[in-house]
Design a protein that fits this description.
The protein is of the alpha+beta class and 109 residues long. Helices cover 44% and strands 28% of the residues. The chain has 3 helices and 4 strands. The chain has helices at 3-20, 37-52, 71-84; strands at 26-31, 56-62, 89-98, 101-108. Strands 1-2-4-3 form a 4-stranded mixed β-sheet, covered by helices on one side.
């Protein structure tokens, strides 16, 4: 076999391998600490869909105004999200406060 043909076949194999690989994206879900039940359910359905697609999810909780005084409500909400997704995902980054946002990253199992 000549070297040109060998190089061509390797190039084809590499292209095929690149085509089949899946890149993991980080999807973001934004919430507020006093989110309503139905809105929360809609966000959770989206989170489950993202995990089914194999993507990571970044849950961002934005505090506005006096909500900063009640950060425990935000922590409770993120703990609730963590509990509901324990079977689907593992916590990659624990909830932490960055300015006026609390952020947690979940990765699919």
């Amino acid at each position: 076999m000549d070297f040109g043909r060998f190089k061509y076949q390797n190039q084809k194999k590499a292209a095929e391998a690149r085509k089949k690989q899946k890149t993991v994206e980080v999807k973001e879900i934004k919430m507020r600490p006093n989110i309503d039940d139905h809105d929360y359910d809609v966000k959770m359905k989206a989170i489950r869909r993202f995990f089914d697609e194999g993507d990571k999810v970044k849950v961002t909780l934005r505090f506005r105004g006096r909500e900063m005084a009640h950060q425990e409500l935000g922590m409770k909400l993120l703990d609730k999200v963590r509990e509901e997704t324990t079977t689907l995902a593992k916590v990659e980054a624990e909830p932490k406060l960055e300015g006026r946002q609390m952020i947690m990253v979940l990765a699919p199992r």
